[in-house]
Specification:
The chain has helices at about 1-25, 30-40, 55-65, 70-80, 85-110, 110-155, 160-170, 175-190, 195-205, 205-220, 225-250, 250-275, 275-285, 285-310. With about 325 residues, it is mainly alpha-helical.
Length: about 325
Amino acid sequence: MDTIFLALGGLLVIVAIILLLVGGRKQDEVSERLDRYALGVEKKAKPVSGQRLSPLGERLDKALAERGFARNLRTQLARANLKLTAGEFIAATIICMILFPAIMFVLRRNIPLSLVAAVLGFFAPRWYVSYLQGKRLKAFNDQLGDIINMMVNAIRAGYSVLQAMEVVAKEMDPPASEEFDRVVKEVQLGLGLEQALDNLLRRVPSDDLDMTVTAIKVQQEVGGNLAEVLDTISFTIRERVRIKGEIRALTAQARYSGYLVSLLPVGVAILVYFINPQFMGPMFQHPCGWIMLGVAGSGIVAGFFITRKIADIEV
């Protein structure tokens, strides 16, 4: 049995490496085409541009092309700025679901723990995507005040809205430069400014950005002094960021207390299990132990989210 799991784990590692080598790419196909045509330079077509997917990822993409959850998954990957297709992400999830329990079984020879590892393998890629989304959204929101100020100065200097966005794409750091560069290129390829801004808002689901985009759309429809409106929005955003920073400082103790209280019993249980497996073994082998673990886990999760909710103050 151990040999089977070892062979399966080794095979999955090899498959994962092949998927990365065959399906890996520095830039997705859409961005490649945008770069090619928006810059006005006709590049030679790369022979691998239509073969960037691994065979497994390509089959999964074909099977999931019209599925609703696949469209949602593509949106989530775009928000995280991961250059993966929905099929490749699902393939990576399947590999994690098999690889994690295989490694756990080889290390501990425990089937219940292997099942827990399989569940972790299912959620681990999604947690990673959520982490990247939150990190990128926070970075963009931190840049938004400077973005609007730069656009205001450019508009007052006589630039159009699109030219002001091009200045932002050239002068700002990622992720703002990447997102506004995408907007500029989409407009240069023939997409309407409103549609390009809607695409930006779908990739960056920020309330402050939504307010900015709405102001630009209204100005495009009815006219008005856009620079003055954006200046007011910039002041509002800066004040909100300042107040949020003060709130985070005041609620830091409550947030980290929630992390500590939630992770401490889990860490102690893992430590005791590795020090004395016979002592903790019945918890994973007897139905009463399973019930106790379920109740304890539910209490920890509920307490963690309640603590987070108390410390999360909307501004």
